[in-house]
Amino acid sequence: ILNDDIMARFRRRTCVILLLFILFICSIMMALKTLRPDRAGFGDPFGLGLLPELQQRTVLLDSKQNSLNRAQGDTVTRVSNLHSSAVNTMKASISPVKKLEEELSSPNYNFHIFYYTWYGNPQFDGKYIHWNHPLLPHWDPKIANNYPKGRHNPPEDIGANFYPELGSYSSKDPTVIEAHMKQMRSASTGVIVLSWYPPGMADENGEPTDDLVPVVLDHAHKYNLKVTFHIEPYKDRDDRSMYHNVKYIIDRYGSHPAFYRHKTSTGRLLPMFYVYDSYVTIPEIWANLLTVSGSQSIRNTPYDALFIALLVEERHKHDIHRSGFDGMYTYFATNGFSYGSSHHNWASLKAFCDSNNLMFIPSVGPGYIDTSIRPWNNHNTRNRVNGKYYETAFSAALLVRPEIISITSFNEWHEGTQIEKAVPKRTGQVVYLDYKPHKPNVYLELTQKWSEKYRKEQEQWLM
């Protein structure tokens, strides 16, 4: 009997061990089955490896075209041969772009994304610009004394809490502009809202960038993107200077195929201008420019446009209406920071806009952190929560059924609102934040996902 009991226990134990082994093998098989290649689903198929090919072919095309121009005095046969060569080269150059066009999601012209071209490095600019941003002191000296001073020292130490995949790049670098356009297009955005200062002007830490506008327009056009302007609060901005600057932009850039025009409910195609910090100018001054009876009125002229004001406080909505603006946007990617950036206020703001024939353009962002330049501002940090914060913002925006959604931002690295690709980096005492456990392009993928969702929901709204 004892032997039988021992044998029974032995058989039970063997069965249990065998069962556990089988379960282990099954779990391994299931795990292997669910693994997907990097490019599956929302994976990024638009690698930077294509850039050298595009660059090389573009240079070759320019070379052939110059040869053609020099050969105008030669024989007809020589001109014909050169022309044929140039055409063939042009076809080779266009071919990869067409291929990219087929791979990329279609642009959504109701998704507008804020873009900054104020970055510089020694290779293209002779020095670092903006990456070496100073540490800004708190306005209260007692608080300011508790925090470090000085400025950042690129390329290892930059004025950002995240680190770009492209490094401390220059906004003048053609390969960088190309990569940015490809990323924005892969995210299914459609309109670039370009930070803009008048010629010869810049923010206090930067250099003038108006000469870059034609380059941005050309690269945007290659990817079927449009460009509009985010007019910054330059020195002495008022009704008169705004009239001249709007005229300058439309005269200089308005004929470019990438220049954005918005189709209004009445069927008019009008340029659109976002006006940052519009509230610092009193409504009476804006009314001179933006109302039909104003002394500097731009209405019903060749320079008429849609002007979108920044709403921060609730009272600004009445000022915006009195000023003659066509709409309002909220910019900040910090839910709860201001009245305008608080998601729970968007429904009432949309209702106000609807009742006053204004556009409401909520701004969504992936998070916020600016302690690399404002070390005392930790309380305004908004954690990305692995993309959940961004998706919550999109969800809140879709609830109010806006005509346009704006995204803060593609590359405002100082405030940590960028959706541009970022990579893990540790150097010395600096440990940068990153997008792990996701890939560097996760926020481009999320933007593309919500662009498609927004497109589908808009179709239902219009039914």
UniProtKB/TrEMBL annotation:
Gene3D superfamilies on file: Glycosidases
One GO term describing the cellular component: Golgi membrane
Enzyme Commission number: 3.2.1.130
Location in or out of the cell: Golgi apparatus membrane
Record field: transmembrane: 15-32
Record key words, sorted: Golgi apparatus, Hydrolase, Membrane, Signal-anchor, Transmembrane, Transmembrane helix
Reactions catalysed, as given in the entry: N-{alpha-Glc-(1->3)-alpha-Man-(1->2)-alpha-Man-(1->2)-alpha-Man-(1->3)-[alpha-Man-(1->2)-alpha-Man-(1->3)-[alpha-Man-(1->2)-alpha-Man-(1->6)]-alpha-Man-(1->6)]-beta-Man-(1->4)-beta-GlcNAc-(1->4)-beta-GlcNAc}-L-asparaginyl-[protein] + H2O = alpha-D-glucosyl-(1->3)-D-mannopyranose + N(4)-{alpha-D-Man-(1->2)-alpha-D-Man-(1->3)-[alpha-D-Man-(1->2)-alpha-D-Man-(1->3)-[alpha-D-Man-(1->2)-alpha-D-Man-(1->6)]-alpha-D-Man-(1->6)]-beta-D-Man-(1->4)-beta-D-GlaNAc-(1->4)-beta-D-GlcNAc}-L-asparaginyl-[protein] (N-glucan mannose isomer 8A1,2,3B1,2)
Pfam families named in the record: Glyco_hydro_99
UniProt membrane topology term: Single-pass type II membrane protein
PANTHER family per the UniProt record, alphabetical: ENDO-ALPHA-1,2-MANNOSIDASE (PTHR13572), GLYCOPROTEIN ENDO-ALPHA-1,2-MANNOSIDASE (PTHR13572:SF1)
Protein family: Belongs to the glycosyl hydrolase 99 family.
Protein name stated in the entry: Glycoprotein endo-alpha-1,2-mannosidase
Species in which this protein is naturally found: Zosterops hypoxanthus
